[in-house]
Amino acid sequence: MEDIVIKAENLKKWFPVKAGFLSSLLSKRQLFVRAVDDVSFQIKKKEIFGLAGESGSGKTTTGRLLVRLIEPTSGKVYFKGKEITSLKEDEMKLLRRHMQIIFQDPYESLNPRITVGDIVAEPVRLLKGATPAEVNEVVRQTLEDVELTPPEEFILRYPHELSGGQRQRVAVARAFAVNPEFIVADEPVSMLDVSIRAEILKLMISLVQKYEASFLYITHDLALSRHMCDRLAIMYLGKIVEMSDTEKIVYEPLHPYTKALIEAVPEPDPTAKRIETVIKGEIPSPINPPPGCRFHTRCPAYIGDICRKKEPPLMNIGKNHYVACHLYGKEK
Ligand SMILES: Nc1ncnc2c1ncn2[C@@H]1O[C@H](COP(=O)(O)OP(=O)(O)OP(=O)(O)O)[C@@H](O)[C@H]1O
Ligand code: SF4
Ligand SMILES: [Mg+2]
Fold first, then answer.
1. CA distances from 302 to 53, 277, 279 (A)
2. Of 70, 185, 211, 222, which one has the fewest beta carbons inside 10 Å?
3. 46, 212 contact by CB (below 8 A)
4. Is the dihedral of CA 208, 225, 182, 190 positive or negative?
């Protein structure tokens, strides 16, 4: 068996919409935001798996479901073959150190009142039997790993004394310090200066290898994810529409939505178009997604009634290239 660390199986998260007084008088039906609507994939050890798509497509919700920051409406999550969606909180507590999350905003995610040394040490102290000397050594080593060197120069500093890039390095150190097996990084460089994004991503790639972790990289920036990820899944309105090796997604995209996203990527062609000019219209509401193929209201390749009426399943059309579109052949 392959070294599967995390597996999502038919995951759904529907958030109930809080109706206003008037709308609740008009309709008795409870409405839901279908943030994640039947998503399945798995991530191997040492693999960087990217989740990309426009704002509101369900990327963050998927990441939060995997580490059980929120509970699914239905579906399951497996961690190293063990189903974790039904675990009680005290059982889950033991697993949490193996699953870490790096947030988008290093100005908000770090406690401003404690020093860098304590920020990184905090999760390590919770490990059973770690002596203060061992904790200090782990903090030193991890700060070196994220290139905040010499560590002594950073240990006693506070977040406000650091640049955005240095703060995100602290967040990365905190996540890796407990030697986790799975890490979710939710747009980890999008708040940073463009000039330092690539080096922070490079750092994370090298740490995934060193710590032998598996990594979910959430982004709407396909230009950066093509250098970062081993595999990519493209999300649209709560569903994965295409999933394959990064090379295939970038150079041989099949789904019309993926093609539009790739066409809109600003690199390496500075004259490339914006997504709004490549596909028409706004992304529809996830409260009432279009029937059939959810992309049919914007699809430049629309092939008729079948697109409006029948939902295309995500199918393996060969060599682990999955696509959900009626243009493509039978399941293999
Ligand atoms: N707690 C919540 N309650 C209600 N709706 C929510 C909640 N969290 C997310 N949503 C909705 O679910 C949908 C998916 O949101 P999500 O944050 O997962 O998207 P995203 O792909 O991460 O977007 P972005 O690129 O903007 O971060 C959106 O329509 C969002 O408004
Ligand atoms: S199923 Fe139809 S509408 Fe959907 S992406 Fe394919 S061609 Fe476009
Ligand atoms: Mg998000």
1. 20, 17, 12
2. 70
3. yes
4. positive
Q: Which pairing describes strands 322-323 and 315-316: parallel, antiparallel, or unpaired?
A: antiparallel
Taking residue 8's Cβ as centre, other Cβ atoms within 10 Å add up to: 22
Parallel/antiparallel/unpaired status of strands 214-219 and 48-52? parallel
Can you give the three-state secondary structure of 271-302, one letter per residue? CCCCHHHHCCCCCCCCCCCCCCCCCCCCCCCC
Residue 154's H or E segment, with its range, is helix 152-155
* Mutate which of 234, 258, 280, 293 for ligand 2 pocket (most atoms within 8 A of beta carbon): 293
The pLDDT of residue 27: 66
Question: Which pLDDT value is given to residue 273?
Answer: 57
- The domain limits of the chain are 4-98+180-323
Q: Is the dihedral of CA 43, 167, 53, 259 positive or negative?
A: negative
Beta strands per DSSP E along 153-285? 182-186, 214-219, 231-236, 239-245
Judged by DSSP in three states, 115 sits in coil
Residue whose entry in the numeric block shows the structure tokens 């990519």: 232
Q: Output the residue whose Cα is nearest ligand 1's atom 27.
A: 55
CATH no. for 4-98+180-323: 3.40.50.300
Condensed to tens digits (0 to 9), the pLDDT of residues 78-105 reads 999 999 999 999 999 889 999 999 999 9
Ligand having the closest approach to the CA of 239: 1
Please tell me the distance from the alpha carbon of residue 24 to that of residue 164, in angstroms, as a whole number.
45
Residue pLDDT, tens place only, 156-205: 999 999 999 999 999 999 999 999 999 999 999 999 999 999 999 999 99
Residue 302 Cβ < 6 Å to ligand 2: yes
- pLDDT tens for 198-255 read 999 999 999 999 999 999 999 988 888 888 999 999 999 999 999 999 999 999 999 9
Measured in Å, residue 324 CA sits from the centre of ligand 2 at 8
- For residues 59 and 51, give the distance between their C-alpha atoms in angstroms, rounded to a whole number: 6
